[in-house]
Design goal:
The protein is mainly alpha-helical and about 280 residues long. Helices cover about 35% and strands about 5% of the residues.
Length: about 280
């Protein structure tokens, strides 16, 4: 939230206001007069609490990816260090957050039953939010993540193929190399490849429409199954990118090497032509 509401970026405006700080012992009087905290005071406070969490969770074993974990704490610390320009620390903690994780494969990305909805079908996710069929958001059918994101279901939905589908800009789509298999996360405008779906309405889904977020268990008709999914909050791939940026800010060649390694996971023909960190 601090990053979302901050005026400017930390590196350009470290005194910029973020949000009010509310702690467990903040008094009612303080709440009535609690101005937005400057970024250069807020982020050290965030790191203070994350460092405590790192200590408390050092010997804790989570029961699932939806539980907070040491990996997730390290990922949050990597984010803060990156925002505040602490490049060595950002690189260090991004590496730590990746412990025991594996980047998504092409098959896992395109999985029609588990693609971007199941934390146990792959080892990329570090932290997630999980819905079950007993949750009110799922029972209500219309007011949940999958109802807004999945265009493959054949039932009442805010993202149904003939209503409010989520689409990519045509120009942006054209910039995705044909050798990058993530291109198939959208419906091709030229029938370049078959729509990667078993949905009974797949031929009606408009060009450029997203099919990245799959309905639960590949179910297209029962919302109690289709909408009972998990939402990624942190993935290994994000940490790989933070590691690469932080490394590149210190030594450009190291950042390029890491970024090329990352890019080739999705596009074997990927090359990086950067000559300076801003590239």
């Amino acid at each position: 939230m601090a990053q979302l509401f901050q005026q400017g970026t930390y590196l350009n405006n470290p005194q910029g206001p973020t949000i009010p700080l509310v702690e467990h012992n903040t008094s009612l009087d303080k709440l009535r007069d609690n101005p937005r905290m400057p970024a250069d005071q807020m982020y050290p406070k965030i790191l203070e609490y994350l460092t405590l969490a790192e200590t408390y969770l050092s010997d804790y074993t989570p029961t699932g990816i939806s539980d907070i974990s040491l990996n997730a704490v390290h990922g949050q610390m990597a984010r803060v260090y990156l925002i505040t320009g602490q490049w060595p620390k950002a690189e260090e903690y991004a590496k730590k957050a990746q412990t025991g994780r594996e980047a998504l494969t092409e098959a896992q990305w395109k999985d029609k039953q588990n693609g971007f909805n199941n934390p146990t079908s792959q080892k990329s996710w570090i932290w997630c939010l999980t819905y079950t069929s007993d949750d009110d958001a799922v029972k209500g059918q219309l007011y949940n993540w999958m109802n807004q994101m999945s265009t493959e279901t054949n039932m009442d939905s805010y993202s149904h193929w003939d209503s409010n589908v989520k689409m990519i800009d045509a120009h942006l789509y054209s910039q995705i190399p044909t050798t990058d298999w993530r291109r198939e996360s959208w419906v091709s405008p030229t029938n370049e490849y078959p729509v990667n779906s078993d949905s009974p309405v797949k031929d009606k889904i408009p060009a450029y429409t997203n099919i990245k977020f799959r309905p639960g268990q590949g179910n297209y008709t029962d919302y109690l199954v289709a909408h009972a999914i998990s939402i990624p909050l942190m993935r290994m791939e994000e940490m790989m990118l933070i590691e690469a940026e932080a490394a590149g800010r210190q030594t450009l060649a190291n950042g390029i090497m890491l970024l090329e390694t990352f890019g080739k996971l999705r596009n074997p023909a990927d090359t990086i032509k950067a000559t300076k960190p801003s590239d």
